[in-house]
Amino acid sequence: MNAAISPSTIAIAERIPYTNADEAHALMQTSFDRLIRVLERLAPDDWSKPTACTEWDVHDVVAHQAGGYLSGVGYTEMMRQYAKLPKRGQLPEDAINALQVGERKKMTPAELIDELKRTGPQAIHNWAYRFHAVKWIHAPHPIGGFMSLRYLMWVTHSRDTWMHRLDICRAANLPFEQTREHDGRIVELVVRDLAKKLNKRLDGRGIILLLTGISGGTWKIGKGEPAAEMEMDALDFNIFVSGRFSYEEGMKRARIAGDKALVENAFKDLLILY
């Protein structure tokens, strides 16, 4: 193991605790507040800049966010959006995203920000504390696996807003605000999901994942003694496992020691739901 990594700093990824309603609310609210602050800093020409979501510019990303928060205002709007049928080969959320973006193509930046401010707080409250009639529903997902709507509401909504704020900041060359308490917990929950997928791929072996930066940390993933270590910037890592970097680009940004083939094979065609 890398001598610079103290064993006392290595956490067990499988033991990362799940969230609860109060924490989910706090994570969503902070993600939302920071998104609004970024949007209010954008210059007029920033809204047409391309993002890492290759089919979307900044305006499209914000339109998706506005539509997403509107879906949390009540069951009627939620079901209207969820009823959007995907095209052949399209993920269900991609069909919903296309609906959200398409309905807002002609909205101005000010109108999008206003819609977010009107709907965001209510949606966050509902996702954390209401919608009990549907939170128990589980369904298979090609990326997330067998998952509940509660998971979508408590985990992925804050993560999605966090990730799209990063998309916007990088597109507009703005600083990405981070704190250990908020961003570190977002990343930790990503690692929790990652561990579930990698445990099946590592075939009884283990790796050390070291993510650098304010929101990073060090985790052991898998069983047995670690056979390899992977180090990467925490933000780059999230861009990678969300599918925004190609596999080749992600591996280029990673520093791997030990059994390189084990790490490369584990991350091949791997995606985490955002």
Folded structure, characterized:
By secondary structure, this protein is an alpha/beta fold. It has two domains: 7-16 and 187-267, SCP2 sterol-binding domain (Nonspecific Lipid-transfer Protein, Chain A), CATH 3.30.1050; 21-180, Four Helix Bundle (Hemerythrin (Met), subunit A) (Up-down Bundle). The protein has helices at 21-39, 58-70, 75-82, 92-102, 109-129, 132-135, 149-172, 180-201, 234-241, 247-253, 260-267; strands spanning 11-12, 138-141, 145-148, 206-212, 217-222, 226-233, 255-258. A five-stranded mixed beta sheet has the order 1-5-4-6-7. A hairpin with a 3-residue loop joins strand 2 and strand 3. It is globular and about 55 Å long.
Reading off the top of the CATH hierarchy, the class of the largest domain is best stated as Mainly Alpha
How large is the radius of gyration? 19 Å
The secondary structure category is alpha/beta
Strand order of the largest sheet: 1-5-4-6-7
- The CATH topology of the largest domain: Four Helix Bundle (Hemerythrin (Met), subunit A)
The CATH superfamily of the largest domain is dinb family like domain
Instruction: Count structural domains.
Output: 2
Alpha plus pi helix count = 11
Task: Record the SSE blueprint.
Layout: E1 11-12, H1 21-39, H2 58-70, H3 75-82, H4 92-102, H5 109-129, H6 132-135, E2 138-141, E3 145-148, H7 149-172, H8 180-201, E4 206-212, E5 217-222, E6 226-233, H9 234-241, H10 247-253, E7 255-258, H11 260-267
Parallel strand pairs: 1-5, 4-6
Antiparallel strand pairs: 2-3, 4-5, 6-7
